[in-house]
User: What shape does this take?
Amino acid sequence: MAATTTHLVTVEEFRQLPDDDGPVYHELRHGEVVAVIRAKYKHYKMQRVLRRLLEDRAPVDGLVDTEFPYRPLSEHELWVADVVYVSAEREKSIDPEGYLAGAPDMVIEVLSPSNSASEMNDKEQLCLENGAKEFWVVDPKRRQVKVSMSDGTWRIWSSGQEIPLPVFGEHKLRVDAI
Assistant: This one.
């Protein structure tokens, strides 16, 4: 999907581009087509661990998934999150031929060498302003998880600590389990 544009690309225009293959896929960020390097096995394995851990704690009627596409803003954004939780109520609103409007209730991004601090801050801000109750950044190298909440608070959880999961009630998740 190599494309050169001279204007902000809409989601509908983005969907008309050829399908991705090879070592990269593309997202639509602020109307620009952005190449994203596909995850290596270590990253993918961490996504699967997070999915399993959250599925064990999430309400049974909610959705926990990996590589989940969503539209944090309606016109010029189409992103893919590493791991998400979407409540049953919000899942029912998804057009089967489209994407979740707004951000998932919980968005988890696993840091990769290709991620910039600016990119993560931008994703965090847009997600928390558009439906996410929690936005996590998992840093495998430091064995830390930054959890930001929609009320503007945030905390970094480290090895040996348990992350509360208010979206799931009284459940907690050990950082070391991730």
